[in-house]
């Protein structure tokens, strides 16, 4: 439970605004839409890129810290994911 609380301390909205700010400030990055989601049981995001492709990002927590970030971009593994 503490792992989820660590992410909630920052809040999904604040993290989404931070990631959106990064993409706005760097025009070389592709534009994308994001939404908070549970990804494989972990707190994370589903992202839709300009071309419609989907990515997921999930955060593994331990002792109140993010210890791993998992990104999946393979469309074969994301067929079941909806934005």
Present the secondary structure layout.
Elements: H1 2-10, H2 12-25, E1 32-39, E2 42-49, E3 54-62, E4 65-72
Antiparallel strand pairs: 1-2, 2-3, 3-4
Notes on the protein architecture:
- It is a single chain.
- 28% of the residues lie in helices and 40% in strands.
- With 83 residues, the protein is of the alpha+beta class.
- The chain has one domain (2-72).
- The chain has a 4-stranded antiparallel β-sheet with strand order 1-2-3-4.
- A hairpin with a 4-residue loop joins strand 2 (42-49) and strand 3 (54-62).
- It starts with a helix and ends in an 11-residue tail after the last strand.
- Residues 1-7 have low confidence and may be disordered.
Low-confidence stretches: 1-7
Largest sheet strand order: 1-2-3-4
Count of individual beta strands: 4
Intertermini distance: 26 Å
In short:
With 83 residues, the protein is α+β, with helices and mostly antiparallel strands. The protein is built from two helices and four strands; from the N terminus they run H-H-E-E-E-E.
Give keywords.
disordered N terminus, 83 residues, alpha+beta, 4 strands, four-stranded antiparallel beta sheet
């Amino acid at each position: 439970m503490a792992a989820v609380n660590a992410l909630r301390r920052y809040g999904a909205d604040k993290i989404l605004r931070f990631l959106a700010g990064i993409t706005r400030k760097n025009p070389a990055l592709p534009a994308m839409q994001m939404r908070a989601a549970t990804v494989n049981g972990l707190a994370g995001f589903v992202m839709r890129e300009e071309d419609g492709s989907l990515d997921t990002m999930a955060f593994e927590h331990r002792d109140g810290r993010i210890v791993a970030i998992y990104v999946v971009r393979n469309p074969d593994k994301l067929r079941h994911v909806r934005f």
